[in-house]
Amino acid sequence: MAPGRASSARVSVPPDYVYVRLDSSLSKLRFALSFEEDGEALQICEGWCEGYVPRGEYWLTAAATDESVGGQRRFDVTSDSDVFITPRTHARRNLGLAMGIGGPIVAFAGMITFVASVLSSFDEAPRKSGQVGAILGGGMFFGGIAITPIGWVLFAQRSPAVDVNPLVLR
After folding, report:
1. Strand partners, 69
2. Using CA atoms in the order 1, 58, 27, 94, what is the torsion angle rounded to 10 degrees?
3. Within a domain: residue 40?
């Protein structure tokens, strides 16, 4: 595998090998391709590379950058393929942390708002604001409950997304 353009010269390729083009959403992303999770790198690329590899299972290891979180992902190559790598970003990880921590706080505030609104509706002169507060509090409670696990999943994801698509050679 090599960075750069494919050569127009004919290359003798064993029958069990396929053409693979690896590309990344970050032009400076360094990544390695190996047969095993912690195995020796077959190829180390920056941004993109291409070449012929045997059909099979591979591990992609993306290095951490200023913009992205490092991680590993397994994928299969069964035919000529275009492999697109999208690393997880620090911004997405921070958003997940904020949602994971903020979700219970919003749920608790919603519960307090709901209870206070329901209790105020027992006054002698019920107001419309009590109903609005109950609806708002209920929405905050269920919204906080919903965003909490989503946030922790976003925070915990380290593996880059790897999309393997059949390659159509022109």
Report:
1. 88
2. -170
3. yes
Q: What distance in Å separates the CA atoms of residue 80 and residue 74, rounded to the nearest whole number? A: 17
- Rounded to two decimals, what is the model's pTM? 0.71
Tell which phi-psi region holds residue 148, choosing left (phi > 0), alpha (psi between -120 and 50) or beta: alpha
Q: Do residues 81 and 100 share a domain? A: no
User: What is residue 131's three-state secondary structure?
Assistant: helix
CATH of the domain at 50: 2.60.40.180
Domain range enclosing 109: 90-156
Encode pLDDT of 22-48 as tens digits.
999 888 899 999 998 888 988 899 988
51 and 135: one domain?
A: no
For the stretch 72-111, pLDDT in tens is 999 999 999 999 999 999 999 999 999 999 999 999 999 9
